[in-house]
Write a structure and sequence with these properties.
It catalyses: (R)-malate + NAD(+) = pyruvate + CO2 + NADH. With 354 residues, the protein is α/β, with parallel strands linked by helices. The protein has helices at 15-32, 47-53, 61-65, 83-97, 162-179, 195-207, 220-229, 241-253, 295-307, 311-324, 341-352; strands at 2-11, 36-42, 70-75, 102-108, 126-132, 136-145, 153-159, 183-187, 215-219, 236-239, 262-266, 274-278. The chain has 11 helices and 12 strands. Strands 2-1-3-12-11-4-5-10-8-9 form a 10-stranded mixed β-sheet, with helices on both faces.
Length: 354
């Protein structure tokens, strides 16, 4: 019997609703497979917790989480709590505290009708974006000088260490080699003459160890254009924290919206737990209405299962996802259906266990 303990942080807005459907999938797998079991610990952290306590998570939050096998996060963010607080004091705190330096964002068109791109189909949009997740532009380094005065100056410093840059690029090369796919680096060396020139240099250096991997390198503005005009150029993509954040939202836009956007925050060495999450945000305007799309949260369950070494179940969840998105009457309103959040989850379980 393989047992996995999962920390649940449902978070804000629609987070609890979509996490409940992901847990529903895991419990269904446990019931169907006598060799697998899951247990759950739930924590009430998020913006409502912040409004009540002044903290996004407990002071010993990382200590409470460090012995679980994975963290399943719903959403973070709510009106009245500044975004830089909600993001940095929970999500980024966990990512950096547990050295989850790999962010995996699959950009995959599951249904041809979901893309706004004329003439593009599933065969054209199928890539994996590997985003550096621990430093870069989100390192939090900088200063705010002479605040409120006419000579006010703000400094925001990107941090690109040899260790951090090399390990994410090497991870991407390994993924491209394993999957027999091309690897594209996205940077901005023409304008950022230190950080991105360094990034490009490391990409070339590491590439000498992988002569079998075909590579490309684009400036981020050109890459953004190609994401829309020629997404078929991309198979495996590696990029910095900020650029990865931006281009993956473009990826969501061309594959059906944020309701289908998922992400995994990975500690490859498994010295700390990894974290899995939909990346659509908390959507407080529809919270509690039962209309939130749970498919991104369920897709993140597929990523979690792969990470646990349960690849067959991971593939089954993904295949079920590909099946359900072709049945419009079984989808939520944002994808053209009328189903409720829980109805989608119930039908998903039915399909999964057929």
């Amino acid at each position: 019997m393989k047992h996995f303990e999962i920390a649940l942080i449902p978070g804000d807005g629609i987070g609890p609703e979509v996490v409940a459907e992901g847990v529903k999938i895991l419990k269904a797998i446990e019931k169907a497979d006598p060799n697998v079991s899951f247990s759950f610990r739930e924590y009430p952290w998020g913006c409502e917790y912040y409004l009540n306590t002044g903290k996004m998570m407990d002071d010993n939050g990382l200590e409470l989480l460090q012995d679980v096998d994975a963290i399943y996060l719903g959403a973070v963010g709510y009106p009245g709590v500044p975004d830089h607080i909600s993001l940095r004091e929970l999500l980024i705190k966990i990512r950096r505290g547990f050295d989850q330096y790999v962010n995996l964002r699959p950009i995959r068109l599951l249904n041809d009708s979901f893309t706004p791109l004329k003439g593009k189909s599933q065969k054209d949009i199928d890539m994996l974006v590997i985003r550096e997740n621990s430093e870069g532009e989100y390192a939090g380094a900088g200063d705010w000088l002479f605040k409120g005065k006419p000579e006010e100056v703000v400094l925001q410093t990107g941090v690109f260490s040899r260790k951090g840059t090399e390990r994410i690029i090497r991870y991407a090369y390994e993924e491209a080699r394993k999957s027999n796919k091309t690897l594209t680096s996205i940077s901005k060396g023409n304008a950022l003459q230190y950080s991105m020139v360094f990034w490009d240099q490391v990409f070339e250096e590491v590439g000498k160890e992988y002569p079998d991997v075909k590579t490309y390198s684009y400036l981020v503005d050109a890459a953004s254009l190609y994401f829309v005009a020629q997404p078929e150029r991309f198979e495996v993509v590696v990029t910095s924290n900020l650029f990865g954040d931006i281009v993956t939202d473009i990826g969501a836009a061309i594959t059906g919206g944020l309701g289908l956007a998922t992400g995994a925050n990975i500690n490859p060495d498994k010295t700390y737990p990894s974290m899995f999450e939909p990346v659509h945000g908390s959507a407080p305007d529809i919270a509690g209405k039962g209309i939130a799309n749970p498919l991104a949260a369920i897709w993140s369950v597929s990523q979690m299962l792969d990470f646990f070494g349960l690849e067959e179940w991971g593939r089954s969840v993904l295949q079920t996802l590909e099946t359900i998105v072709k049945q419009k009457d079984r989808l939520t309103k944002d994808l053209g259906g009328q189903a409720t959040t829980s109805e989608v989850g119930d039908y998903f379980v039915e399909l999964l266990l057929k």
